[in-house]
Amino acid sequence: MPNKILIVEDTESLALLYQSYLIPTGMQTEIAYTGQEALDYLANNKPDLIMLDVMLPDMSGMDILAQLPANDRPRVVVLTAHASKELAVDAIRYGAADFIEKPVDAERFRITVNNALKLNSLSETVEKYQSRYENGRFCELIGSSAPMQSVYQIISNAANSKATVFITGESGTGKELCARAIHQCSERNKKPFIAINCAAIPKDLIESEIFGHVKGAFTGATNNREGAAGMANGGTLFLDELCEMDLNLQSKLLRFIQTGCFQKVGSEQQQQVDVRFVCATNRDPWLEVQAGRFREDLYYRLYVIPVQLPPLRQRGQDVIQIAEALFSRIASEEGQKFEGLSDDAKHHLMAYSWPGNVRQLENMIRNTVVLNNTAWIEKRMFPPFPQTNTAHEGTVAAQVSAPATLSTPSIETTNLLRSSDIEPLWIVEKRYIEKAIAACNDNVPKAAALLDISPSTIYRKMKTWEQMAEQAY
Q1: What span, in angstroms and rounded, lies between the C-alpha atoms of 195 and 211?
Q2: At 131, is the pLDDT very low, low, confident or very high (cuts 50, 70, 90)?
Q3: How sure is the predictor about 162, in pLDDT bands with cuts at 50, 70 and 90?
Q4: Are residues 267 and 323 in the same domain?
Q5: What global pTM score does this model have?
Q6: What is the mean pLDDT of residues 91-104?
Q7: Does an H or E element contain 303, and which?
Q8: What is the mean pLDDT of residues 140-152?
Q9: Is 15 helix (H, G, I), strand (E, B) or coil?
Q10: Are 144 and 188 members of one domain?
Q11: How confident is the model at residue 85 (pLDDT cuts 50, 70, 90)?
């Protein structure tokens, strides 16, 4: 929709000249030759921008500025042939966005208009973001940490796009909440959000769950049934744990994503729907492609806008924000009150690594609320936390089950090294990475994932090792 510009200028030749400057931009322009004409127009219309002459026959442009509403007012650029510092200060004080002096050429006029409209767009974006993000909450997601701020920004940017969003992250990090946030921030938010957990549905029923079936399609199909694809028409279809889907069904899903058409099980009639796809997995989808469990063409079709949800252990003070929100909600559900957490309780929550992420935290909080009918929570009320290998947290050993051949010396044994045993660090690193690659059957991307580095890093190191070896000999 073209921007609407109101030009308030009493000299007809200048007004028409300014109007002609904007013809190449495709903007919609209106002219008011007096202050009263401008006010009458503004009483029934809201332009995106007002180009306002200061010297009008019936009133000053400043009088018009003063009468504009304080909230939800159009942006104003003041035009005058009598420029002075005092006039510029007054114009800005009354709410003008810019100030330009006559005579003005076409290029300067268009640049000023475009800059003012960009400010409008920026203000709308900030207001929209602030309306979604308040007090550490973004839709149903909670947290103010830098990693989550990055996630919120991706959601805001991608929400109204038709591109598929692929959410990855450990179990319990809130992938479905992230998918719901994408739906809530989009223009589809008045339409259905339908979620399917591909890992929770038996293999022989998942096609029916997604596409639906007709009566008699299989044993037990006593009625026609609408599937998730049909129910999500106009809205969002969320496919959780997508990498668990059977390969045969993946080909049907690919065709559905490409065409928007599908057939119910047992039917020969095609249906057309308009659906936004959001997918999620707690695995590395590219490793699943390499292992032959996930179609490569489906990967490229779906992995358009990736969102990596950080584990709870990497989110700092978010742990406390989430815990307080969960305590408040669960206490209310259980008919109890919650006033706060003691300092020792907060320290205990922050010190733990939460391998089960937010889901584990929620279960622990429900246990605490049910077994302790008190509004003030202290550390002693928490159930015992399962012990984790904190020495290796954030490393491959803590995140994945590495092959047995990838054993590393313990911290204690390193103290027993003699100076004659010490090798250059690059040689030790080379030996370890080569063992990782061998343990993964020479699959470099898989080894890179287990080592928590990118495959390109390994290839770069291999080239460096060759150079180091040449220099050594």
Answers
A1: 13
A2: low
A3: confident
A4: no
A5: 0.59
A6: 77
A7: none
A8: 89
A9: helix
A10: yes
A11: low
Say if residue 199 is in the same domain as residue 282: yes
Say how far residue 469 (Cα) sits from the centre of its chain. 45
Greatest mean pLDDT among 89-98, 204-213, 376-385: 376-385
Strands 28-32 and 225-226: unpaired
Answer yes or no: do 296 and 441 share one domain: no
Residue 2, preceding bond cis, omega within 30 degrees? no
Residues 203 and 298 in one domain: yes
Strand partners, 32: 8
Tokens read off for 326:
């969960």
Query: How far is the C-alpha of 366 from the C-alpha of 119, rounded, in Å?
Result: 47
Cβ within 8 Å of residue 131, ≥6 positions away: none
pLDDT of residue 416: 54
Question: What domain range includes position 435?
Answer: 395-472
388, part of any domain: no
SS (H, E, C) 16-52: HHHHHHCHHHCCEEEEECCHHHHHHHHHHCCCCEEEE
Amino acid in position 254: L
Q: What is the pLDDT of residue 194?
A: 95
Q: Which amino acid is located at 326 in the chain?
A: L
Q: Is there a contact between 446 and 438 (Cβ–Cβ < 8 Å)?
A: no
In a domain, 390, yes or no: no
Q: Are strands 137-138 and 141-142 parallel, antiparallel or unpaired?
A: antiparallel
pLDDT value of residue 304:
92
Residue 91, both tokens: 């114009």
Q: What is the CATH number of the domain that holds 150?
A: 3.40.50.300
Domain boundary among 128, 150, 166: 128
